[in-house]
């Protein structure tokens, strides 16, 4: 069973955030690692028979990385609250992308549950307004930067994995199993390639 690091206290979070703002990459890594439990918790709400849980977690981690990179303590009280919105936004963006690729999906299809345990349907996602315009613009900038990183720091196999996993370069989003089959490698190797590529991109974006 996978274990997660304990969330930081308010004092610890403030300490690492201050170091992170000074460009300390280790502090940024710690903030990410100590909030992975939040990613798993949110991703669990969106689990369904059609989606691989690992895929949801991977997408949620991208939202967490964006949250740590763009968090402003003067505008938000706690990183966890801000990160939760970023993680959910990333997952909802994925569902919107899937909807565009498959017009046969019912607007009433169940895709998870909300905080009260009520059914969350695709129609609710597609009709929801963005949380914050400025936040979304910042995320778009991050996405463009991530695309630049793909070209500059990833090798060909890593680019294939990332492009396939997140539907980039005109490709359809694929699960790790689908990518493994198309490339003739194991799913565990695809998972390692994805994690390595995301880490290389994160380091490049922090530079």
Shape: globular
* Model regions low in confidence, pLDDT < 50 over at least 5 residues: 126-134
User: How much β-strand is present in the residues?
Assistant: under 5%
Strand adjacency order, main sheet: 1-2
Mean pLDDT: 77
Radius of gyration: 17 Å
Helical segment count: 10
- Oligomer type: single chain
Q: Please give the share of residues in helix.
A: 55-70%
Major sheet: size, sense and barrel closure? 2 strands, antiparallel
SSE ordering:
HHHHHEEHHHHH
Q: Report the end-to-end length measured between terminal Cα atoms.
A: 34 Å
The count of strands amounts to 2
Given helix and strand content, the structural type is mainly alpha
Description:
The chain is mostly helical and 207 residues long. The chain has ten helices and two strands. A two-stranded antiparallel sheet has the order 1-2. Helix 3 crosses helix 4 (53-70), helix 3 (36-45) crosses helix 5 (79-101) and helix 7 crosses helix 10 (187-206). It is globular and about 45 Å long. The termini are far apart.
Task: Compile the SSE list and pairings.
Blueprint: H1 10-21, H2 25-33, H3 36-45, H4 53-70, H5 79-101, E1 110-113, E2 119-121, H6 122-127, H7 133-153, H8 156-165, H9 176-183, H10 187-206
Features:
about 210 residues, mainly alpha, 10 helices, 2 strands
Give the structure's gist in a few sentences.
The chain has helices spanning 10-21, 25-33, 36-45, 53-70, 79-101, 122-127, 133-153, 156-165, 176-183, 187-206, and strands spanning 110-113, 119-121. The chain is mostly helical and 207 residues long.
């Amino acid at each position: 069973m996978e274990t997660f690091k304990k969330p930081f206290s308010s004092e610890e979070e403030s300490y690492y955030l201050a170091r992170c703002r000074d460009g300390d990459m280790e502090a940024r890594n710690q903030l990410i690692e100590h909030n992975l439990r939040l990613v798993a918790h949110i991703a669990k709400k969106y689990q369904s028979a059609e989606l691989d849980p690992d895929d949801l977690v991977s997408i949620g981690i991208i939202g967490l990385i964006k949250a740590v990179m763009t968090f402003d303590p003067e505008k938000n009280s706690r990183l966890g609250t801000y990160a939760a919105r970023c993680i959910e936004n990333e997952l909802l963006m994925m569902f919107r992308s899937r909807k565009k690729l498959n017009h046969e999906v019912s607007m009433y299809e169940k895709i998870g549950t909300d905080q009260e345990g009520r059914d969350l349907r695709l129609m609710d996602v597609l009709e929801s307004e963005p949380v914050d315009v400025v936040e979304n613009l910042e995320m778009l900038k991050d996405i463009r930067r991530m695309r630049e990183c793909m070209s500059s720091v990833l090798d060909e196999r890593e680019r294939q994995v990332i492009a396939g996993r997140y539907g980039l370069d005109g490709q359809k989003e694929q699960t790790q199993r689908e990518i493994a089959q198309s490339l003739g490698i194991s799913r565990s190797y695809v998972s390692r390639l994805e994690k390595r590529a995301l880490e290389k991109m994160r380091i490049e974006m922090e530079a």
